[in-house]
Amino acid sequence: VLFGAEEMIDSDPDHHHYGSRQFVRDMTSTERSQLVGMISVDMVAYGTTFTIRTMNQGPQELRDMLLDFSAANGYEAKFLKDKGTYGWSDHEPFELAGYPAAWVEWRRDPNYHTSRDNWNHVKSKEALVERAGEMIFRFLLDLTEADLQYVADARELD
Predict the structure, then answer these.
(1) What is the DSSP string of 124-135?
(2) Taking a C-beta distance cutoff of 8 angstroms, is the pair 134, 50 a contact?
(3) What pLDDT does residue 6 have?
(4) How far apart are CA 4 and CA 90, in angstroms?
(5) How high is the pLDDT of residue 12?
(6) 3-state helix, strand, coil in the chain (%, to 5)
(7) pLDDT digits over 35-93, tens only?
(8) Would the pLDDT of 158 be above 70?
(9) Confidence of residue 121 (pLDDT cuts 50, 70, 90)
């Protein structure tokens, strides 16, 4: 699923993540029961540190599985807590709703949210996008039914 309207629109810390929040709000009970977890892929085109992030608010099983997979397969992702009260990516509404959720990103981009944060700035970084995509793709292909059940059992839904 691709979400729009993720960025902050003003100084109100609650004015962001409109697309992902609406998606979580509108899920039917069947969709809620079938959703195992969520991986947000955001800010993967620039940086020097490959990270898996959560707010530490919801179940952490998916985060732990991604970190274990990363270490075992040479991707070397590190955990970095999302310090945002409302989360800094679209994993936020899923994690706060009780789903195992994680945000995959590369860290630090000195041009983040400036006028220099554009295609020309990141176009030479295709290898970072490819590395993040490859890790997630391989992780998903490697999942077993037992893995999916383990993550599903971790949900803290009402």
Answers:
(1) GGHHHHHHHHHH
(2) no
(3) 67
(4) 10
(5) 73
(6) 40, 10, 45
(7) 999 999 988 888 889 999 999 998 999 999 999 999 999 999 999 999 877 888 889 99
(8) no
(9) confident
Q: Are 71 and 8 in contact (CB under 8 A)?
A: no
CA 62 centroid distance within chain: 10
Place of tokens 């020309």: 120
Q: What are phi and psi of 39, to 5 degrees?
A: -115, 120
Q: Which amino acid is at 73?
A: N
DSSP label at residue 22: H
Q: Where would I find the H helices in the chain?
A: 18-26, 29-34, 61-72, 92-96, 119-122, 126-142, 145-154
The whole-number average pLDDT for the span 3-26 is 77
The CA-CA-CA angle for residues 69, 74, 79, to 5°, reads 55
Q: CA 21, 151, 137, 145 torsion: positive or negative?
A: negative
Cα 116 to Cα 43, 88, 122, distances in angstroms: 15, 20, 10
Tokens of residue 34, six digits: 């079938």
